[in-house]
Structure formats: structure tokens, C-alpha cells
Model the fold of this input.
Amino acid sequence: MFMKKNLLSVLSCLLFLLMMPSTSEASHVMGSDISWRCVGKDSFLVTMNVYRDCNGISLSPGTISISGIGCSYSSSVSPSMSSPVDITPVCKSSCTRCSGSGCSFPYGIHRYTLTALIKLNNTNCCNFNLSWNQCCRNTNITTGASGNQYFIDAELNKCDTPCNSSPRFTNPPIAILCAGQCFIYNQGVVDDDGDSLVYTLTQPKTSASGYTNWLSPYSYDKPLYFNGFPNKNLPFTPPLCRGFHLDSFNGDLMFRPMQAQVTVMAIRVDEYRNGQKIGTIRRDLQ
Done:
């Protein structure tokens, strides 16, 4: 069961929950990702998955901002928001903080789906940045970024590959593992157009040009205490499972956590066709 002494619950591969205090905060956003599907010439259905801490405040759909990259264009849309889905990794018979604030299990995670139709036919721009922000990141974060503004974005090109749909994440960012256990997690990214994908760790953002804080010795590419810290390039060879690795080809995230922490992380997926980059999506996670 969940309450073994060394069992850790990991959100987005690295949010260590069960050994952390349970508090109600004025923060709530735990992670999100953006993708889009072409539904007609210059028209795209944008989809966001947003993950909310059920101990925090309610989620607002906010707005999705659209700005031209290297050109003059600015717009925004108000997305529709689905009813929340409780994705907390517990047995079906167990309660969570999403099902009730009085639940003895101190955690809960809601997933919301935000959707909006955007039309980019009244502009000569080719490249666009899609972004969404909200206050704030969880104040329980122990590696930096506590209480920082939450910001996620993606990049769309509508000219070089007309009516292109982006890659999308299919695996929910939830896992259960034990302290000291080797861990491999695949992002489950698919691209219906068959384009080539490249994965990299990137800096979580607070705005279009701002980035989260880090407490020394942590950083965006060393976001938690892993086996072999701080040398992230040590070989992952089991059973040692040293270093902190993201496979740039298949998106496998590999590490061995060594202590309970709450941290943040961002993964960038660049989409290529015929050797040319045609889009970028990100998953930003606490």
C-alpha cells in the first residue's frame, strides 16, 4: 500500500509527495502541456491538459495568447474547460483530496482539458507562439521556484508545412516508485504526421522571457537529488542507475531518486520534417 516508509508518489516523474507535508496553499497549478490539430486551412484546435493540486485554489481557464514570432501579430482566445478528472494514483476504493477535503490521504490531482479554436488567416505571419499563464507554482517546492508564476508555451508554423498538427503527449504524468529505485518513464508522445521528434530538457518559465528560480546546487537539468548527483552524465547502467538522463530520440527519462523532494521540470519536443524544424511543444511539470 501507499504508506510504506520509503514509498514515494511521483507526479510528472519527479514530484515526491508522500513524505512531504500536506498544506492548503493559494497555489494550484502542477503542470500542463499544449498541442494543436489542424482542422482546416489556417484553423487549429488547440488543446491543453492542466494538472491541479486539489489542496489548492480553484483553476481558472484564463486565456490562450497568440503572438507572431518575428512579425507583428497579437491575439487571445478564451478556452472552454472540461470537468475535472481525478487522476491521483490510488486504489479505486480510496478517497483523495479531490473527492473530499476531509480525506485522510493528503493528496489529490485533477486533470482539466482546455480547448480553443484559433484562426490564423488574417495575417502574413508564419510562426506563432501560443502561451498560457496562471498564478502560481506550489509553495511546497523545495528546489526553487516556490510561488513563481506558472507559464507554458508552444511554437506553431503555418507556412512551411500547411495544416500541420503538432505532436501530443499521451502518457499521463503520474508514476509510483520507491526511494532508491531505478526509474524509466516514457513521455508517450505521438505525431500523427510521422514527423521526427527531438527531446530536450529546458528551463521552466515564469513569463515569455523569464525563468524559474533554483536553489543551489539544483538547476533545470539537475532538478532533484539523484544517484551520482551532481554528475548527470554518469551511465544509467542498472542496478546503479546513476545520473539524470533524457533520451533525445525516444523521450525516456531515466534516474534514481535518492530523497524526498518537490521540484519542477520542463521537457521540450521539437518537431522536424525534411530536416527543418516546424514546431515545438513543451510539458512543464512540478
User: Anything to note?
Assistant: The chain has no helices and 20 strands. The longest strand covers residues 29-40. The chain has a mean pLDDT of 86. The CA atoms of residues 25 and 56 lie 5 Å apart.
